[in-house]
Amino acid sequence: MLVLTRYLLQKLFGPGIVGFTGNQSFMYLDLPSNMVGSFLMGWFAVVFKRDIAKVSEFLALGLTTGYLGSLTNFSGWNQNMLDLSVEGNWAFVLLGFLVGFSFADYSFTIGIRSAKGFRWLLTRLNTSPEHHICNNSKRNWKVNTYKRHLAVMVVLVLMLGLLWGVSAILLKKEFDSGSSGSQLWLACMVGPLGVWIRWWLARLNGCGLGRAGLLKWIPLGTLIANVSAACVMAALEIVKKVVNTKTCDNVAGGIQFGLLGCLSAVSTFIAEYHAMRESKHTWRAEAYALITIVTSFVLGSLIYSVPFWIREYR
Questions:
Q1: What is the C-alpha separation between 20 and 262, in angstroms, rounded?
Q2: What are phi and psi of 214, to 5 degrees?
């Protein structure tokens, strides 16, 4: 579902319908999904996170790290800027990073403010979130026992299996016909793997480097996920240029949009940036943002842009 949501937002705001975003514009294709994901992250990862966790901590984790993290796409954003750079549109590259970061940042802030406003409204109406949580508990909606966790897991696994089955059938149909639509269904199949890898890497956040635990303030897991996804995205893009076949384009495109799109996350990156900005060491927020963006772009340039310029791919 998360891959389909991102795909639909691309199509809705892309050149075919609204025309708000484009491949050769600093208003890149993933900008709307990055804004929506960051906005909702302000709601569910900041304001209402505790309320959701009272029902189920797994629900809170799945909604924020899973769905909203995968709805946004850092690697796609970085690759769009690399595509602009190889064409010499450096002004668009700078604007793309400034606009992309600013819009996601502002969307996150608006999400927090609107969620707080909604919470205040519920309180005024004497229907606070805590009141609803209490009622839900009385109705046995709270997932707080082994059997209930097991039941939820079984349902979710069955849903995942069903979605995988449908995606596999549609993938085979589209792949046999040579349609580019096979990219979407392949992306739906490999997307969950990207979510799982990002969740696993999140364990590194707060650990620091080496035995001494240097630079613990850097969310190392998120940084590795975003930078590695951006690098692999760039590598697959140059592979598509070298091989230059429709099959390669479809397979690589599906992996890029699904696995790498779900592995990297703008909304999590922005949430961590905000947490640092509200700490005692505000400079860390800007340093973290620069480290993530500059490292991804420089490594991406070495992997994608340099071979592109040398071999003059078009």
A1: 23
A2: -70, 150
Look at residue 16 and give its three-state secondary structure: coil
* Token duo for residue 210: 């080496």
Average pLDDT for consecutive 10-residue bins of the chain (314 residues)? 84 88 89 94 90 77 81 94 93 95 96 93 70 50 64 72 76 71 85 91 88 88 96 95 88 93 94 93 95 97 91 68
Cα distances (angstroms) measured from residue 156 to each of 59, 183, 185 = 11, 24, 19
| 268 contacts 274 by C-beta, under 8 angstroms | no
The set of residues, in sequence order, having a beta carbon less than 8 Å from that of 216 and lying 6+ positions away, is: 206, 207, 208
> Phi and psi at residue 31, in whole multiples of 5°?
-60, -45
Please tell me the distance from the alpha carbon of residue 160 to that of residue 62, in angstroms, as a whole number.
13
Number of domains in the chain: 1
Phi-psi category of residue 74: left, alpha or beta, with phi > 0 → left and psi -120 to 50 → alpha = alpha
How far from 23 is each of 14, 94, 259, 308, CA to CA, in Å? 9, 15, 20, 17
CA distances from 164 to 10, 152, 189 (A): 22, 18, 6
Tell me the residue range of the domain where 180 lies: 2-311
CA distance 194 to 229: 9
Q: Encoding tokens for residue 149?
A: 């966790």
